[in-house]
Amino acid sequence: KQEVTQIPAALSVPEGENLVLNCSFTDSAIYNLQWFRQDPGKGLTSLLLIQSSQREQTSGRLNASLDKSSGRSTLYIAASQPGDSATYLCAVMPGSGGGADGLTFGKGTHLIIQP
Amino acid sequence: NAGVTQTPKFRVLKTGQSMTLLCAQDMNHEYMYWYRQDPGMGLRLIHYSVGEGTTAKGEVPDGYNVSRLKKQNFLLGLESAAPSQTSVYFCASSYPAGGNEQFFGPGTRLTVL
Predict the structure, then answer these.
(1) Do B43 and A89 count as a contact with CB atoms less than 8 A apart?
(2) How high is the pLDDT of residue A96?
(3) Contacts of A53 (CB under 8 A, 6+ apart)
(4) Coil, strand, or helix at residue A95?
(5) Which among A113, B15, B19, B55 is least surrounded, fewest beta carbons within 10 Å?
């Protein structure tokens, strides 16, 4: 059974710092990996999608990398801002279902950016 | 586009009551999903559908039923609600040409007393 672990569970940093959130998964046979942001009491917002054949994806100040063979992904946030405060979730889709299966989620990293 | 919408936003039930949660998407997505989110457990897949008229079980399907009679709608039913079904329920949709990136609705907060 696929397991997804996110480290750290919580992180608090001053505004302006660059930071890295980590995600690891136990079964490397994945179809894709997705990073989400969740604000309190809200739904999930998709940040980045990395296909299994890709190594990284970038969107603005966000960069996500994928090392499928070692079962690891990182989300890099540059020049953090108070508005980046949220819970960040990593999720993987199994490779066996042709992309139709549901996602397996980590428990998230709760990020606080201090003004 | 409204994206993925969920009805209702909040609901309180008594044990044994039934209800249906509605998910609607206007993006013409093939695949739709129901998840539940619980403190300390993260999000877990309940049921999903790969097309109109099809459904499949996820990780935690017991106590729930689903139907996908129209491509844009995915219904989640609780026939006899139990306190263990108190949770936040999220619907999502995706399409193959988009790399199967999943887009989520705002959630339904359900409390079963």
Answers:
(1) yes
(2) 77
(3) none
(4) helix
(5) B15
